[in-house]
Inverse folding.
């Protein structure tokens, strides 16, 4: 939310220190971010309470470099985490260069982790007479059409690099699965401390491959079984229709038999010449 520069630099609200920021020197609007020490009952190892600040109302265009530049005045910043809302945990990290786990839209919450606990105490004593600039000449922020154009261009990865990353992922996955199988097999052969043997779900009989042909065969068998379970000649109209179809079939067979007999009689006629 935009406000005046004087109001941004004046107040502390609800135990939070006010951090006034501007997008750049060309903009007159001042926005306020709010920060305090991160205090929770069950802290995450990557967010120790004596080394972490929680920062609220972080604008969408404010990135990790912006916060590092602002808070590095009081000490070395170890890491920064962004979330949609306050949380004691951390986001699941991904090693992929092409697939992002989650992109935060809109305003967000940041956690600034310092190397030393004394940096948190210094940060809580910071006084801002003028707003901090998020976009500078040395580190400009990309926004608007330019940002969207870059994101669109980056949405088309190079096939060879993508294939290399996929191959590496599958190699690691197969290695992990093989290790799990070996551990499971070892547990199945050896009893534990109390003499119990772990029963494995893997039997001697291997399962069938889920191919299109096998699935089609199973569906046909299920359809046949379902037809056998259906009640035949149970309702009155079923009995009536069954009798009618049976009589029609008998008449059809009778006419075919008459034709066969006529052909046989014609073939027995005496023809001397």
């Amino acid at each position: 939310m935009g406000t005046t520069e004087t109001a941004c630099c004046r107040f502390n609200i609800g135990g939070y220190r006010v951090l006034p920021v501007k997008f750049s020197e060309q903009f007159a609007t001042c926005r306020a971010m709010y920060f305090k020490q991160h205090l929770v009952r069950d802290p995450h190892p990557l967010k120790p309470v004596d080394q972490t600040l929680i920062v609220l109302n972080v604008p969408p265009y404010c990135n990790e470099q912006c916060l590092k530049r602002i808070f590095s005045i009081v000490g070395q910043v170890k890491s920064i985490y962004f979330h949609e809302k306050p949380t004691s945990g951390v986001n699941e990290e991904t090693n992929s260069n092409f697939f992002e786990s989650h992109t935060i839209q809109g305003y967000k919450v940041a956690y600034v982790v310092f190397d030393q606990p004394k940096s948190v105490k210094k940060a809580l004593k910071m006084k801002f007479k003028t707003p901090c600039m998020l976009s500078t000449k040395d580190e400009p922020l990309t926004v608007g059409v330019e940002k969207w154009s870059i994101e669109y261009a980056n949405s088309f990865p190079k096939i060879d690099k993508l294939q290399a990353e996929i191959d590496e992922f599958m190699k690691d996955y197969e290695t992990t699965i093989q290790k799990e199988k070996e551990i499971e097999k070892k547990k199945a052969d050896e009893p534990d401390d109390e003499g119990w043997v772990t029963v494995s779900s893997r039997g001697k009989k291997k399962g069938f491959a889920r191919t299109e042909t096998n699935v089609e065969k199973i569906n046909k068998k299920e359809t046949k079984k379902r037809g056998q379970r259906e009640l035949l000649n149970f309702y009155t109209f079923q009995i009536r229709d069954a009798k009618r179809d049976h009589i029609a079939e008998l008449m059809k067979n009778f006419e075919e038999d008459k034709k066969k007999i006529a052909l046989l009689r014609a073939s027995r006629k005496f023809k001397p010449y």
Summary: The longest helix spans residues 236-267. The mean pLDDT is 83.
